[in-house]
C-alpha cells in the first residue's frame, strides 16, 4: 500500500497544463525555425556584405589606379617631348622646356645631368640654385622596357629657400660620342598625395601606393608607420583581393610604372558591424513574433484547455467524494464533448461498482463471521466441556476451573471485537489457552514451548493464525505417536517482516501432502484451517506473504508463516 501511495505521489508530480505544453511547443517550433532562418540569413548576408566590401574596395582602388596612371602617363608624354627635343639640341628646345615649367604648376623643375651626376642644365621658375646641392639620379643603365622610371617621393633641395615634395621621372639618353645624359622632371607629389588622402573605403578604410618590390611610396598614415606606431601588412601582396581576419586588401598594379595601389577596408566596419546591426533588428523582430505567437497560442489553448481544466477539477472532486459526486456534462469541441460523455459514463459505472463492492463487503463480513464460528469445532467444544465435567466429578475442581478460564479466554480473543488484526501478544495468549485445553484433553501426551522475541509482541497479526496450525500439529502429528510429542512455537523478526514457526516431532508428511494441504477447498474435511489462514494472510497483505510447509516422514513438520510488521497506529488509520 505504501508503494502504491508513492507511485501515486510521483504521478501527481507531473503537474503540466495542456495550454502550457501547447504554447511551449508552438513557441519552440517558431523559435527553432526563426533561429535557423536567422543563421542562414546571417550567413548569406555576411557573404553578400563581404562581396560588397570587396567590390567597393576594388572600385575605389581602380579609381586611384586610373587617376595615378593618367597622371604618370601625362608625365611620360612630357618627358618624351623633352627627350625628343634634347636629341636635336636647338634654341627652341630650351624655350619649350621653360614654357612647360611656367605653364605646369605641378612641374617644379627640369634638370639635365651628366654621367657623373653633374648638373648640366636646369629650368625652374626663377629660384636660385644652391652652391651645394644633390641630384637624385639613377646610377645604373636600365633596359628600355617601355615603363616610366620614377623615384620615391623626396624633398627637393636644389634651390635656396624652396623645398617642395616631389617625385622625379627620368630617362637616360645615349649620345653619339658614347656618353650619356639623364633628363629629370621633378613633379610636385602633393597633388597625387591629396587625391590618395581623399579616397575612403568605408569610414576608416584608405588607399596607399607602394612599389612592386614592397617598398612604401606613399601612405596617408606615413608618419605613424615610420615612427613604428602602425604596421602595414599589405605591401608584399600580389595583385588581386586578399581577405584576412581583420581587413580586406585590394591590390591594383599600374601598367606604365612599377607602382601599385593598395586599398584597405576593415572587416569589422564593412561586414561585422552591418551584420550585427542586421542581427539586432532581426532579434527585435523575433521578440515581436514570439510575443505574438505567445498571445495567439495562449488564446487558442484557452479555447481548448479551459474545458479540460474544468474536467480535471471534476475528476479531483470525484476522487475526494466519489459516492456523492454528481457530474454535469460540459459543452465544447467534439473532443471535449466525447471526454465529458465518457467521464459521465465512467462516474455512473464506478458508483454502481462501489455500491456493489459495499454489498459484497457486507456479505464478506458475514462470511468471515461464519468462518470464525466454524473455527470453533463443535466436537472440540463438546470434548472440552465433557473433560471439565469429568474433572468436576473426579474432584479436580482446580483443574476444571483452569480449563474453564482457558476456554473463556479462547472465545474472548477469537471474537476480538470484530477486528481482523490483533496484537501478537493476544495471538500468543490465544495459542497458549488452546494448548492448555488440548494438553488437559490428551492427558499431557505432548509438551510445548514458546520462543517469542519481546519486540514482536506489539505488532499486529491476523487473529486465529496459530491455533489452526497447532491443531494440525496435534491431530496429524504428535497424536499418532507412541512416544511423547513436542511442539515448538517461535516468533521472531526478519527485517521488515515477522516470522511465525510451529514445529513438531510428529510422523511428518510427504512433499505432495504438504502441497495438498494448501490446496484443500472448503468442502474437504481436513486441513481447511491451514488453507483458511494462508488465504486470509495473502488477501490482507499480498502474495509475498503466507504459509510455507516443510516436513520429513518420521522426523516432523515445520510450518512457517510470514507477515509484514504492522503497528497498531497504522491499522487504526485504515
Describe, in plain words, how this protein is organized in 3D.
Pfam families: dCache_1, HATPase_c, His_kinase. It is a multi-pass membrane protein. This protein is of the alpha+beta class. The protein has 3 domains: 218 residues, 2-Layer Sandwich (Beta-Lactamase), CATH 3.30.450.20; 43 residues, no CATH class; 183 residues, Heat Shock Protein 90 (2-Layer Sandwich). The protein is 52% helix and 19% strand. The chain has 14 helices and 18 strands. Strands 1, 2, 3, 4, 5 and 6 form a 6-stranded antiparallel sheet that branches. A 5-stranded antiparallel sheet has the order 8-7-11-10-9. Strands 13-15-16-18-17 form a 5-stranded mixed sheet. Helix 2 runs antiparallel to helix 6 and helix 6 crosses helix 7. It is rod-shaped. The N and C termini lie close together (11 Å). About 1% of the residues have low confidence.
Please supply descriptive tags for the structure shown above.
574 residues, alpha+beta, Beta-Lactamase, Heat Shock Protein 90, 3 domains, 6-stranded antiparallel beta sheet, 5-stranded antiparallel beta sheet, 18 strands, transferase, HATPase_C_sf, transmembrane helix
